[in-house]
Amino acid sequence: MNAVAFLLGLLVLAYLGSILVGGRTIRGFGLASGAEYLVLGFVLGPQVLSVVNRSLVETFQPVILVGVSWLGLVLGVSYLRVGERRVPVPHIALGVAMSALVSACVSAVVFFGASYFSPLPRIEVIAFAATAGMACSETTRHSVRWVVERYGAKGPLADLAADTARASALFAALALSVVNGWLPGAALPGISVFERVLVSIGLGVVLGFTAALLLGREFRRDESWGILLGTSLLGTGAAARLNLSPFSATFAMGLTLAIVSRHRVDIKAMITPTEKPVLLPVVLLAGASVNVKLPIPLLVLVAAALVAKIFARVLCGSLLSVTAKAVRGVGLEFGGSMLSSGALGLAVALALSVRHPGVVADTVLLLAAVGVLLGEWLGPAALRRALARAGEIKPDVPPEGAQPTLPSEA
Amino acid sequence: MSGHGGPKKTIATRAIQAVSLLVTFGVLYGVTRVTPELESHLGTVAAVGFLLLAGTLMSELLETIGLPHLSGYLLAGIIGGPHVLHLVDHHTVTELSPVNTLALSLIALAGGAELRLETLRSVARGLAWATLIQSTFVLVCMAGVFFAIAGFVPFTQGMNSKALVGVALLWGVLAVSRSPSACMGILSQTRAKGPVATFSLAFIMLSDVVVVILLATMLMLARPLITSSGGISIEDFTVLGHELLGSIAVGVTLGLGLAIYLRLVGRQLLLVLLAIGFGLSDTFSYIHVDSLLAFLAAGFVVTNLSDQGPKLLHSIEQTGSVVFVVFFATAGAHLDIPLLRKLWPVAVALCGSRALFTVVAGRISSRLAEDPAVLKRWGWSSLVSQAGLALGLSVVIAKAFPGFGEGFRSLAIAAVALNEMVGPILFKFALDRAGETDRHAPEVRPSLPPAAAAE
């Protein structure tokens, strides 16, 4: 397939994605995490049909880079609010802590497994463990939203699920900036890892402030697109050139905008609908990049990492059932519901594969992809069960959940 | 491109814009100094962001001294480009060529969609005279000027006078090419309405077709003059005829398809325009269809055979607000400043005389067509700009005559650079003076109610 035809295919996919953005449609069609596009990419990719070969995927690396960074901006801008409701700080702290715990469990398993059972050099083992942990740390907010809207759920558990899912992005953004600053090949050899983290976050903050100032008092939609696109692309390109994390930079930019801009509501309303159209092509490219022909020890490590992820999530749920009132009695199910992962996990893996292509990046991408499929299978069902047991789903609501308005945005 | 006018911006706003511009330059300057050599897509992503942001800010700041936004985009590109600060390198400028393809297709679509049949009828007489006089008078006069100063042109040294006549005729064709992109850029910014705007748009879009025919004719005539072995061949016209008719046929079909889509679906026009701009431009080139003409015909059909023209124009304006900035800023980065420095005396002479003959031709054609006074006075103003079309013609000529082609192309680049910088300023000045620019505020939307921001 030539590049133009493939680009047109991606645009068609983006077109489909933009149709799926509609609130009502999301309840009727598609999977919560967009896993079907991941599978489609895999089937079209070099591992199965070879319609999309490896060099073509590499040609479209800028699409991946920009898509992942745009996801960072969207997550940053929408980080502090779920619909009209502000996310409480304890919920943010809880979401970040759960992500950190899951990430630590997965990283530990991968680190020890890779140290003993794989021939990888130590530096690659550390990179492998760190990125594997990050790729497993996310809970996709789309999955929670999908269940909440489909079944018309309303209550403290639905809110907690939505808030912690959203909060998980902060951990990934910070961890990614640390790992990128630590990986060899950074363009700022004279400064420490901590300073590199500050540079990537600082770049985003400076550009976020610049964008907020430029958006000024009055909101002009056409001009705002130019400013937001310009600052985010400049941040993405600059961070990428310095071998820092573009995702972290744009996340910081989005978060800065959400905090300091008086047009935060307008900006969120403007850019949130672009998330699916941008991400579906990226998910498809991620699917096409998945390589399953890995050495057996690495495949075993992927399985072990997934088991560790499930264990860590269930552990989080169990701990919460003791400490949080909303989760009481449904800890297991709640923990299981947090298994859903999506574009952010894939983005972490793709970021690594763009910067350091190789067997480690392939393994992390495979882990993220299988994690998406596993999460799709277990997560929404577990959340539905948890919400039903908590009495937050009305028994007479049909599964299509055709409510005229959304009860709460997840 | 943002609209003209609007609420007056305060000194504080301008100061913020100036500081933001410095931050933009500073960020990329710092990054390029840390990682100086990088020929990859990473540079391209940063460059697009930089050109978009710096172009927008520079245009806002130049607005305070009455310059068009387009000049701001160009200046941002020149300063950030490979010849001044080297924030955007040659490789990146080449990598950005798909943006040019997209921008040109949008410009042609919008140009066609702006051409209403009734408007064309109202300026038909003036258009016919202007096309005839501008295409013949300017061509002949410019060929004469080129012949007269050929002694100062490096690549014509040693040519006999027969060959010089041939080269001069080719320069004449180059001189009668205009810039649809500059015209649309200024009209889009100023939202100008009136005789000068209507005439300029119609003339420049029509001149695209005329120049293509003239080039084929002059190539046919010049070949035996320049290369003693060559003869006149009518085969060029057969090919040209097929290309023109094919382009119109394809454009009409595309226009009908677009009109149906706009009527029946009418959603996600950004993605549809991207698909058309990227996908169809390449397809057209593959099947030897002139994409500018095809898109022009498509826009014309949408406006005149359906009621979907305003919807199409609105979508193009929204998409173009980002694409055009990058397009013109890239054009600025592409300007070969060292070459201009080398060839500037000849280039200034050629550009000055071209502008003079354009004004004279404009006055003659306006008098013959009995145009309204404002058109007699300012009708020529949009015809000074030159950009991508002229450069495209120079590439065709360079390929046709490899012996002197590169020298010819270099001089063309230098001349186009001058016209590209001066032309838009003249056009905007004329539109302001003719009272055709919209000084009403563009739509400023208050903040959305919180509910609207829910995902």
Helix/sheet category of chain B: mainly alpha
Listing every helix as H and every strand as E from the N terminus to the C terminus, the arrangement of chain A reads HHHHHEEHHHHHHHHHHHHH
- β-strand percent of chain B reads under 5%
Number of helices of chain A: 18
The first-to-last residue Cα distance of chain B is 28 Å
Largest sheet of chain B: none
What would you report as the Rg of chain B, rounded to the nearest angstrom? 22 Å
Q: Which pair of chains has the greatest number of interface residues, and how are they split between the two chains?
A: A-B, 60 and 60 residues
Radius of gyration of chain A: 20 Å
Please provide the count of β strands of chain A.
2
Unreliable spans of chain B are 1-5, 440-455
Total DSSP helices of chain B: 18
Write down how many β-strands of chain B occur, each being a DSSP E stretch of 2 or more residues.
Answer: 0
Order of helices and strands of chain B: HHHHHHHHHHHHHHHHHH
Residue runs with pLDDT of under 50 for 5 or more positions of chain A: 22-28, 400-410
Globally, the shape of chain A reads globular
Distance between the termini of chain A: 39 Å
List the helices and strands and how they pair.
The complex is a heterodimer of chains A (410) and B (455).
Chain A: H1 3-20, H2 23-28, H3 35-44, H4 54-59, H5 61-77, E1 81-82, E2 85-86, H6 89-117, H7 122-135, H8 141-151, H9 156-182, H10 193-215, H11 221-241, H12 246-260, H13 264-271, H14 275-289, H15 296-323, H16 331-337, H17 343-355, H18 359-389
Antiparallel strand pairs in A: 1-2
Chain B: H1 11-34, H2 41-63, H3 69-80, H4 90-95, H5 97-114, H6 117-122, H7 124-148, H8 161-175, H9 180-190, H10 195-226, H11 235-264, H12 269-286, H13 291-305, H14 309-334, H15 337-369, H16 373-378, H17 388-400, H18 402-433
